[in-house]
Design a protein that fits this description.
The complex is a heterodimer of chains A (466) and B (73). Chain A is mainly α and 466 residues long. Helix content of chain A is 63%, strand content 3%. Chain A has one domain (4-460): Ammonium transporter fold (Orthogonal Bundle). The chains are: A mainly alpha (466), B mainly alpha (73).
Chain lengths: 466, 73
Amino acid sequence: MTDELGALTTIFTEFYYWITVVLMFLIHVGFCMYEVGASRYKHHQHTLMKNTILIPLVTVTWFLFGWWIYWAFPTGPGLAPSIMNGSDALITDDSAFSAVYYKATSQLMAINLGDHISGVFWAAFLLFSWTAASIVSGAVIERITTFAFGILAIAIGSVFWTIDAAWGWHFDGWMLKLLGYHDAYASGVIHAIAGGFALGILVVLGPRIGKFTSSGEPRNIGPRNPWLVVIGLFLIYTGFWGFYAACNIPIFNLGPEYGMEGVTYFTATNIYVTPTTLSGITFNFLMSLSGGLLAGYVISKGDPFWTYSSGLAGIICASAGNDLYHPIQSMIIGMIGVVIAYKLHYWVERKFKIDDAVGAVAVHGYAGFVGLVICGFVLNGYPSSGYSVGAMWDGATYASINPLGMFIGAIIMFFVLGMIPGFIIAKILHGMGKLRIPREAEIAGLDYEIMEAAKDDEKSVASATR
Amino acid sequence: MATVTNWIDHLSASEVQGAVYPGVGSEGILVILGFIIWIGWHVITAKQESEKLQKLARQRRGPNDWKSNVTDG
């Protein structure tokens, strides 16, 4: 870098994403605390380890192939031609933003003096991957094996969510072009898919022992440490700020990008390279959080676990369009999402005997799904991209945002890339006898031996001090 | 192995080489190593976990037996 202004912009962008990664780390800290707080005492340490171990597993696989998938699959393949090379095959040629640069063997996937962005951008997406896997982790506590969870975490964190990101979050994605899909802060591409994936697993995994009576009535297994749950959710809120910032490009000159002769317009953009402001999304983040908290407090009659979770669900529901909504719209959308998610959680629990231990399917899956559908109506007619606005199903141009396209997008996220793969992989693991821990181990508690050893240590120390 | 042996020479070259890690050109081998470590981890830990769970299951503990193991803190 020899031009000072260019260097400043590049290094600012590099530092910007780096900071978002640090902030998003708090999401995972929060999820760990939240899950441990929700689990019973005799499963605490196993619960913690299960969620922790997804960090290295998803990271390593994200390096080996996950990041490549994001750059290779925007065209489907075979569904809509790339605006970069005109082909609807995998984007593996030498065009700009090709997946060829993000193979694990690429020299850009390392310290490279010619590239200041790949690593921090890779990491920002990686933290989204952890989040996707961590959402699933909470739903399945106290009865899944760590082996099975590891495989499932890699599947959602390094394969399925990155396919949906390529399809619906990449500026060249076929879902933008054909459907007019818009999901600025990931109602669908992270939350709906992860919630759907968790639901698919839960169908196969079954409930915790004792969750349902012999007549099928659900029993409440509430959080054992509400304080840990509360702090965990506050940390997730905090990390979510980093998530929102990471979904933006901090500074971009849209004039030349859109091919406008002589126009210079520097702005922050969302992931689709359409203009927004960090200031504007700050309004919406806080108003949708508030809408969620207000609605959650009412619908749960002041239950702390659901009220805190509803704050998160409020943000998740409004996230699809939080780059463009008015703050009051964000708040109302957050409230609607919470009411639907809460009601659906208990209906599905009773009707299908689904034991979602932390309400992850509701908070992330249902709220995310509803958020996409609402976005289709509220942002109906907005362009899904700044490059070239066209009609639905055209393929060569970008369709405008519309209710039908967003509904189809929600189905793709929740069911096609979420619930169905989760169900199939869980079925395979179940068939191998590797999905669920033995009944006797679940009754005894997964931490039994660790606790027994700690007690023996305590006795030993006590006897030495007499 | 060293890709850079003198920063002044390196940065004043007509075309600065971007990659500076040791062993530039050996990325393929490193990635294969990464795959082996990743898969190997699953194989080892699956065996460990299976043995641990079977041992615990054989003990047939009751749902409240863990309470006798609560430490004083």
